[in-house]
Amino acid sequence: MLRAYDEQLRTDAETAGAVRVTRHGPLRLATFGGGRGFISYQDLDGADVTRIEELVSVAVAHFDADPAIEEVEWKTRGHDHAAGLHDALLRQGFAPEDPESIMIGEAVLLAVDVPLPEEVSLRAITSEEDVRAASIVQDAVFGTPPSEARVANQLRGIAAGESEMWVAEAAGEILSAGRIDLVEATEFAGIWGGATVESWRGRGIYRALTAARARTAIARGKRFIHSDSTEFSRPILERSGLVKVGTTTPYVRRRS
């Protein structure tokens, strides 16, 4: 599963939807809407400390030359061989965020019936009003600032048939929300943004949303589900049969 992840989900799959992508050696330097830069690669071609320092410097110079870029993410993986990368990123102003678990498993393991509280229902959403409401819930749960670019990107993906967004509701109130992205030309679908209001946790809602998204993946011919999971969702996914195959840590550099 880790081999499939490295071969199918890195580089091109991570830069889909970018405004432009520039190649430098093993790196793909992707510019996304909303002032976001992203650095992807399948591996670093066995680069030594000196070469890695050079790669980081080139990436920083590339994005610094674009005044529209507000932040840049370099997504590291724990199983990569990247001597000196952590220190090189710190010297260039990147800061590590919390590591997440790379979870992968067969979609059929998640597509199960999950009992829900009687007052809770699930549905896929497509309207701008609903997507914005779901985004507000996710931002509140994760403690992230609102992002017009993120909402616009979610609406674009839904309209293009690349994504589905699901919510759980009770009495018209969104309790939980999550997205599934169908990764083109791969065996994978990714589940993202799973967030449940704290007072409703532990009642099967997140598992039910995950099951609904897994059924979408199967219907679209996908074999695997993957997710970069926080410690809230990792145990739930493990109980559903997904496996932790590694870790990923984003390093983020924000323009001062």
UniProtKB/TrEMBL annotation:
Domain N-acetyltransferase as annotated: residue spans: 120-256
Membrane-spanning parts: none
PROSITE patterns in the record: GNAT (PS51186)
Molecular function as annotated in GO: acyltransferase activity, transferring groups other than amino-acyl groups
Cited SUPFAM superfamilies: Acyl-CoA N-acyltransferases (Nat)
Protein name, entry field: N-acetyltransferase domain-containing protein
Lineage, highest ranks first: Bacteria, Bacillati, Actinomycetota, Actinomycetes, Propionibacteriales
